[in-house]
Amino acid sequence: MMINKYIKQIFFLIIIFIINIQIYSANITSAMLCGNFDDYATVYVNGNSIGSYNYINWDSGSPITCRSVSTAYLNASGSNVIAIKVQDTNGGEIWASWYMDVTYDNGQHAYVSSNQGGGKICINI
């Protein structure tokens, strides 16, 4: 029996963050989600895909990827869900690090990030 030596296992990690955006007496005008993920990720805000992100090595000199988030996807008066499907294609570790900057029409900003906790992890192997 011959074993195909090119078979590669691919692992998926799904991380779900339930976040609250600071409520100001102003309207949300824009939002941006920036992050780095090992190795590849698709990010969803309240069930809406905002795009894919590729891994950027620490010594590459390239900036992390940022994507606009439609203000229609955000719940300004309550909880929001950021779900991240991270795919490990090279073996080793798997992780996600991100932040979101929400801008209001009065110039104020609200920031949320993966460092604030609240993440729930689901692992699919």
Q: Can you describe what's shown?
A:
The chain has one domain (25-124): Jelly Rolls (Sandwich). The strands form two sheets. The protein has a five-stranded antiparallel beta sheet, with no helix packed on it. A four-stranded antiparallel beta sheet has the order 5-2-7-8, with no helix packed on it. It has strands at residues 11-20, 28-38, 40-45, 48-54, 65-68, 79-88, 95-104, 109-113, 119-124. With 125 residues, the protein is mainly beta. The model is unreliable at 1-8 (pLDDT under 50). The protein is globular, with a radius of gyration of 17 Å.
Number of alpha- plus pi-helical segments? 0
Return the average pLDDT rounded to an integer.
Answer: 80
Tell me which oligomeric state these chains represent.
Answer: single chain
**Helix percentage:** under 10%
In N-to-C order, the SSE pattern is EEEEEEEEE
Strand content: over 45%
Count of the domains: 1
Report the sheet with the most strands, covering strand number, pairing sense and barrel closure.
Answer: 5 strands, antiparallel
CATH topology: Jelly Rolls
The CATH architecture can be given as: Sandwich
Round the Cα radius of gyration to an integer and report it: 17 Å
